[in-house]
């Protein structure tokens, strides 16, 4: 077995990668050893180390920036545009997938196991992103449950016990999966709109998912007043990259994302598409008309 | 003295050999047995549509009447395989239309089926009897109409959780009045309402109809009239179970249910209104299979219902049943063999209002002696519970545990779940399928490799610490056939060291791990009988060989590299510019 270990090849380019050297202790923020032969029962798992946290670029972050994440970032030769995690990212995910462009989707949900309904509960759902394919439930089931919860919300008591009549916020919320396509990208993504609470979050997520395809760079990401952005800045952000985000609404019209209030948007959005600005020019006048007729 | 049996005698003997595993063994005995067997095999299973060409299959089995095909890897169910990857039914249907026109049954799983495919089936196979599509996509209701109108001997048409472009409910009306052979109809995954009068007429002229699974659009009231027309049903999938019915309608429906003397399996039950649950009481004692996994029913009502199902063998339910409910199930349903508990949609795990823990499963394992198949989604688990379950139920064959938060340790001791899974693989010696979750170190996989000798399919996510994990599995699990791994931190070494193992397996899926592009190339060179597919949106020339790839799908094949790979699938065969790796990895 020893030659097996000795032949470890640090192909990621990390200076210290605990898993490759099974007898070495892991990096500082873990107290658990990875020594397979060590049956030390006194080692209490550093719970915090395994806690899953997530922050989208620009969001506030407490202590933890996973050291390995930082070094991975710097040594990874993949195109920089794609790897734009802000410094403030909460990255204590245990396993970092440095070249996985669906990184936002692969980041684990923000579910602090110990910290139940803290005041962070408002923040926790807001910053939660969906891990693709986890938990492993078929799309058919997800979509069926989503539409049944929507249908059943009309005061019938045939829903989860967390939903009572008249309660503004029900417990388990339905998923709202929409397909996101992009011109030139080889395949679609699916995202759950319910996991985002604003255009800012949505745009960050889309950025992460598709930035490998954009020609221009997005604007700076490090906390530069992200919180102050309103919806109309979304198109500003993306304009720099020659792409705009559009969506197909309930009436099957294609609209620019960002023009209507968020709540209205998620109710009417069926599909998202990132298209070149030049092609989206024709959308603007219709959007104005729609808004006018709505107001 | 010629000791060989005449082939006619052999044929007769082989006609009693049903299972394909046995038939495969038979065909290995000697040439004449191979020849006789292949000429008499009627049911063919190809579990990876890219492992062999349709022409080869048609050539080997001239008497093929039934073909079962599987396409995409299992993790496609969870959106891990990008659209356009492959799994097209068309090449098969085209080839079979020419070479096996007597085909009667086609069962496809996770394949892309177009309307063109369906039209071709309708046009080419005169004796066509059964079409069963599971988790397929790419067709519309127009394709169904083509099947309905042309297949005059149709017995089975089943669409199980397919993604269908729904252009309306007219397709059902295309079944001709002369079609009376229907045995099984399942359109539960469609959205649009079919014309009720056409459905009623179809049902009433199908005396052999045993299985009917309606879609959600069929109302409760409509259900009543359908049941009256088909009291012989053995399997029923209801539509929506929540109209407002008047008292008379309710009692008529109740009467209709009580007439279903043969009913063994019940499913559907979308939007079940608690006040209508008693309608089902009359069929409960005979039920062997009950799928409540779409019924958002609360625990007390579930218990009321299940306490009457003394013969139940298969139960699919949501976690609304809670620990208490599972305890009740355990005491009422002693014949239980298969239990699946699905999450009720609480994406926000913080706010789960459902009191379901490991205890529910422990209760069932204690009391139900025949329990052999488990799929259990829950929020937390303990080693103790796993040890208890293993002790109670050494007869488990399929154990799939999904602790929904990745890396969750034993919630009482905060330790990894290594010891718990050790107990499972040590105790359940016949375990064939295992899915692990929770916090797991390499130790867990050492145990699995040491004890899981009969495991054929293994699913792993967010686990392990190093290459050792993969090494233990590939070198230890002798019966391993399908291995699927996501988000685990192992890399090239174990994969390359155990390359030979891969030819003994059907397939290996790895996504978000640390396998490098160089290793994939090397593996591909070393093992010509494997297709090593790298599924990655980035062209390989843009990064070094040492960088990890997003997803890998490796499968053995006799058909060589496939010709329908999309842009984002990279192989050394298709992408010659990648060149040969001279990266020497020990």
TrEMBL record, chain A:
Main location, first listed in the record: nucleus
Residues of the PB1 domain: 175-277
One GO term describing the cellular component: nucleus
Keyword field contains Cell cycle: no
Pfam families, per database record: AUX_IAA
Region (Disordered): 16-43, 143-171
InterPro entries: AUX/IAA_dom, AUX_IAA, PB1-like
GO biological process: auxin-activated signaling pathway
Localization: Nucleus
UniProt keyword annotations, A-Z: Auxin signaling pathway, Nucleus, Repressor, Transcription, Transcription regulation
Keyword Repressor assigned: yes
Gene3D superfamilies reported for this sequence: Phosphatidylinositol 3-kinase Catalytic Subunit, Chain A, domain 1
Transmembrane domains' residue ranges: none
Family designation: Belongs to the Aux/IAA family.
Subunit structure: Homodimers and heterodimers.
Purpose: Aux/IAA proteins are short-lived transcriptional factors that function as repressors of early auxin response genes at low auxin concentrations.
Protein name per UniProt: Auxin-responsive protein
Automatic annotation (TrEMBL), chain B:
One Pfam family per UniProt: Transp_inhibit
Key words, A-Z: Auxin signaling pathway, Developmental protein, Nucleus, Ubl conjugation pathway
Top-rank lineage group of the source organism: Eukaryota
Pathway: Protein modification; protein ubiquitination
GO BP field: auxin-activated signaling pathway; pollen maturation
MF terms in GO: auxin binding
Gene Ontology cellular component annotations, sorted alphabetically: nucleus
Main localisation: nucleus
SMART domains in the cross-refs: FBOX (SM00256), LRR_CC (SM00367)
Full protein name: F-box domain-containing protein
Organism: Eruca vesicaria subsp. sativa
């Amino acid at each position: 077995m020893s030659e097996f270990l000795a032949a470890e090849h640090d192909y990621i380019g990390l200076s210290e990668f605990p898993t490759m050297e099974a007898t070495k202790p892991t990096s500082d923020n873990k107290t658990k050893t990875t020594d397979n032969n060590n049956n030390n029962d006194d080692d209490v798992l550093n719970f915090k180390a395994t806690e899953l946290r997530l922050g989208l670029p620009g969001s506030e972050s407490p202590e933890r920036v996973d050291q390995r994440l930082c070094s991975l970032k710097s040594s990874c030769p993949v195109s920089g545009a794609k790897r734009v995690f802000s410094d403030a990212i909460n990255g204590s995910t245990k396993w970092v997938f440095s070249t996985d462009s669906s990184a936002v989707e692969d980041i684990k949900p923000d579910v602090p196991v110990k910290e139940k309904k803290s005041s962070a509960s408002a923040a926790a759902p807001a910053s939660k992103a969906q891990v693709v394919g986890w938990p492993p439930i078929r799309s058919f089931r997800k979509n069926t449950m989503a539409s049944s919860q929507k249908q059943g919300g009309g005061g019938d008591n045939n829903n989860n016990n967390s939903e009572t009549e008249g309660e503004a916020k029900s417990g388990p919320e339905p998923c709202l999966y929409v397909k996101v396509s992009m011109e030139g990208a080889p395949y679609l993504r699916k995202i759950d709109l319910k996991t985002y609470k604003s255009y800012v979050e949505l745009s960050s997520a889309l950025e992460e998912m598709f930035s490998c395809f954009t020609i221009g760079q997005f604007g700076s990401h490090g906390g530069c007043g992200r919180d102050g952005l309103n919806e109309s800045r979304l198109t500003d952000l993306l304009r720099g990259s020659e792409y705009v985000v559009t969506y197909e609404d309930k009436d099957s019209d294609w609209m620019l994302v960002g023009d209507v209030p968020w709540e209205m948007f998620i109710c009417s959005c069926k599909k998202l598409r990132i298209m070149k600005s030049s092609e989206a020019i024709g959308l603007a006048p219709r959007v104005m008309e729609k808004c006018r007729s709505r107001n | 003295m010629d000791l060989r049996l005449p082939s006619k005698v052999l044929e007769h003997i082989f006609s009693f050999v049903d299972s394909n595993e046995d038939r495969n063994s038979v065909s290995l005995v000697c040439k004449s047995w191979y020849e006789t067997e292949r000429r008499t095999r009627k049911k063919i299973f190809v579990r990876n549509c890219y492992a062999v060409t349709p022409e080869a299959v048609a050539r080997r089995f001239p008497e093929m009447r039934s073909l079962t095909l599987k396409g995409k890897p299992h993790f496609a169910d969870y959106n891990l395989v990008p659209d356009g990857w492959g799994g097209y039914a068309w090449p098969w249907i085209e080839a079979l239309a020419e070479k096996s026109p007597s085909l009667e049954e086609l069962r496809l799983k996770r394949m892309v089926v177009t309307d063109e495919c369906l039209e071709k089936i309708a046009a080419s196979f005169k004796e066509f009897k059964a079409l069963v599509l599971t988790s397929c996509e790419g067709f519309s209701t127009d394709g169904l109409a083509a099947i309905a109108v042309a297949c005059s001997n149709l017995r089975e048409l089943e669409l199980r959780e397919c993604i269908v472009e729904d252009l309306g409910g007219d397709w059902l009306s295309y079944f001709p009045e002369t079609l009376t052979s229907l045995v099984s109809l399942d359109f539960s995954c469609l959205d649009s309402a079919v014309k009720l009068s056409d459905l009623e007429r179809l049902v009433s002229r199908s005396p052999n109809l045993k299985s009917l699974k309606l879609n959600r659009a069929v109302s409760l009231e409509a259900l009543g009239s359908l049941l009256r027309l088909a009291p012989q049903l053995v399997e029923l999938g209801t539509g929506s179970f929540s109209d407002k019915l008047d008292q008379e309608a309710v009692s008529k429906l109740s009467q209709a249910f009580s007439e279903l003397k043969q009913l063994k399996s019940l499913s559907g039950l979308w939007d079940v209104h608690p006040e209508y649950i008693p309608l089902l009481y009359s069929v409960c004692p005979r039920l062997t299979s009950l799928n409540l996994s779409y019924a958002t029913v609360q625990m007390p009502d579930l218990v009321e219902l299940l306490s009457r199902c003394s013969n139940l063998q298969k139960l699919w339910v949501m976690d609304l049943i809670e620990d208490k409910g599972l305890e009740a199930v355990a005491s009422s349903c002693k014949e239980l063999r298969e239990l699946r508990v699905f999450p009720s949609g609480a994406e926000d795990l913080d706010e789960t209002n459902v009191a379901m823990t490991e205890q529910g499963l422990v209760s069932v394992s204690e009391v139900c002696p025949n329990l052999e198949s488990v799929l259990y989604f829950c929020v937390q688990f303990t080693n103790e519970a796993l040890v208890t379950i293993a002790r109670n139920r050494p007869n488990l064959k399929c154990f799939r545990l999904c602790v929904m938060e990745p890396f969750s340790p034993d919630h009482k001791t905060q330790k990894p779940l290594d010891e718990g899974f050790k107990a499972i693989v040590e105790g359940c010696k016949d375990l064939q399928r295992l899915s692990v979750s929770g916090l797991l170190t390499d130790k867990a996989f050492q145990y699995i490799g040491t004890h899981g000798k009969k495991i054929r399919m293994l699913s792993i996510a967010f686990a392990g610490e190093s290459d050792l994990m993969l090494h233990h599995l590939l070198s230890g699990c002798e019966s391993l056939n399908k291995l699927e791994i996501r988000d685990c931190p192992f890399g090239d070494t174990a994969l390359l060291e155990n390359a030979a193992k891969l030819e003994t397996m059907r397939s290996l899926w790895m996504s978000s791990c640390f396998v490098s592009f160089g290793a994939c190339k090397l593996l591909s060179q070393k093992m010509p009988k494997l297709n090593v597919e790298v599924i990655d949106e980035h062209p390989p020339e843009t990064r070094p060989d040492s960088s990890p790839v997003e997803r890998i799908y490796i499968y053995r094949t006799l058909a060589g590299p496939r010709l329908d790979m999309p842009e984002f699938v990279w192989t050394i065969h298709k992408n010659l510019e990648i060149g040969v790796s001279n990266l020497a990895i020990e």
